[in-house]
């Protein structure tokens, strides 16, 4: 599904290399987790995959089902099925959450040559999905993420993901700032989307999320590289011993 | 004191080209206004109040040509239940207008007052304009009082069932219209006035509004899409106790627009909101100049102005809140913001507060900035194409001003126009 090869990325504005040769393949139907110390480049990887400005790819490639992503505009990547649940969801004053969701859903449908959803069909689907995430009608009316608590923002990300039904879901620390119940809600939302045709890349610092969203593969990222890959037990090891042993092992 | 030579000659030339209408109860007001113009002189670029906006095309003898724009789309407020009063190049068109009778309001044509010696309108006509000359001169408004050739005198005595819609059609390339309206709102009466259209190649527009205790008036204007049109408008409002005045102006295109609003609180516990949204592309200069005077207790004033500027367009805001001695518990708010869609456009703002009472809450803010890149990326990452995402963010920016309109139906039609403008530019 997602294939990242030898990806090197530096900042556009300054001469700072952040990703130093990332290799990673996420197969359809699988959940991959990425863990790693602060500043190792996890969010950068997620931004580069979704098309944020400010980064320069100096080497390597990233493809989704064989299509090169790195040349495309963010909206084209989204239409192909890339979705990033942001570590810090953005507030957009003045744009209603509902308008935002409908515009996004219909823009993607249009880009894929599908028919737009009618207002009433859309409303029905949103309400149903919002309910399972315990997002109330009032929150849907508010401007995008404005005045939302940290946990509400994260649930709103999952709602968008559920509405857009992307092929490749990238979740950047969706668990941070969530209480135990909200974590369960978010995990249920993600698990409901688990499907043969869909891949997940879950960035997290904590084993706790991975108790709910069982990963198939766990990667450890450090200083812009994947330095170790293993099964779910790798996350448990990090939980108990931190990164010191792993870092020492590869050094 | 004699006027500087240039000002004097400009003023004399302009006055020489105009005929002072005579006959009827407004004669005294017109002559007094003429003498005000002669004393003040017409504005020129050396005047502090015209620092950011060049008045020369507004004071020139001839109106610069402006092509008549045919949009092909339905006129603004079409489909609303309203009473239409149509002016073509500044001349009332009875055939295009509706019957002027409506319960709760009486409407007369300004030039029909000729034969009426005693009429309440002379207590307002030119009176609010003259009050508004202090402390800042507004000579184009005095010129209007002296020479206005048409307009309506509206007396709101109750609550009319539908809005009055002044429709300003543009017919000739070189038309020069001077319109003057007087609106008197009685105690406990309430009305809505809708204005739309370019009116002429050059439009000098004055509306004097007197609202008695507990009266309410809403004014929503849309200034017409003709690219080369010019307008100098003045809105003078005097507010009685517990009265409410809300105005919103939409400006889309036009090469030069100067909208002045002068609001005076005379009775306690009154509310005035003056708002505007403008969008301009290229050869577009838009100036909002507002002066709010609090001379009563516990009144609330809000000024909310938003401008979207691109391709070298210029936006100007000069807004003042004056709180006089004794005007305690004043709540004054003023915000002016511009969204610059490129580096060529500019926004010039002069927000001012002048306060002589100690128990007041006044705030003002002015900002100028580009589209928020983080927000734009967020929208695009969800699949919204860049142009559409930019439009959504732009409408969001304008929303605070549009929200000043009480009627959801009217606000929605304003948003449609704004969206149309943005969509045409993709
Ligand atoms: N726009 C930027 N400007 C300057 N430095 C940047 C920028 N983006 C990323 N960096 C730097 O690149 C490195 C990687 O950052 P990134 O956010 O990808 O780390 P992370 O692994 O997601 O960390 P965390 O676990 O704290 O979220 C850090 O040193 C960060 O400071
Ligand atoms: Mg991060």
Task: Characterise the protein shown here.
- Chain A: Residues 2-248 form the ABC transporter domain.
- The complex is a heterodimer of chains A (251) and B (426).
- Chain A has 251 residues and is α/β, with parallel strands linked by helices.
- Chain A is built from ten helices and twelve strands.
- In chain A, a hairpin with a 5-residue loop joins β1 and β2 (17-26).
- Chain A is globular and about 55 Å long.
- The two termini of chain A are 31 Å apart.
- The model of chain A has no long low-confidence stretch (mean pLDDT 92).
- Chain B has one domain.
- In chain B, α2 runs antiparallel to α5, α6 (373-381) packs across α7 and α7 (386-402) packs antiparallel against α8 (408-425).
- By secondary structure, chain B is of the alpha/beta class.
- Chain B is globular.
- In chain B, the strands form two sheets. Chain B has a ten-stranded mixed beta sheet with strand order 2-1-5-7-9-11-13-15-17-19, covered by helices on one side. A nine-stranded mixed beta sheet of chain B has the order 3-4-6-8-10-12-14-16-18, with helices on one face.
- In chain B, 21% of the residues lie in helices and 37% in strands.
- In chain B, a hairpin with a 2-residue loop joins β1 and β2 (91-92).
- Chains A and B meet through α2, β7, α3 and β8 of A and α6 and α7 of B.
- Magnesium ion binds at residues 42-43, 87, 172-173 of chain A.
